[in-house]
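Before our next group meeting I need something from you. Please put the record directly below this note.
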Amino acid sequence: MALFRILLLAFLFSGVFKFVTRILIPILKMRSSIKAQVKAQAQAQAPTNATKNQATTSQQKSSNAGEYIDFEEIK
């Protein structure tokens, strides 16, 4: 009976070990690499977003300079 229990535990531990090494570790590695790619992409876009924000604020300031008056040509 003790031998059966030892064999059963060894089988269970080997199954858990295979699961962790074949499934969980690659998933965790892929997850960390995707996070790194997203972070790098966000850092690459940060300067362009800052320049876009500056351009829109300058456009807003110039558009607030006066009210648009429709011009009609008189002949």
Residues 10 and 41 are 45 Å apart (CA to CA). The helical segments are 2-63. Residues 2-63 form the longest helix (62 residues).
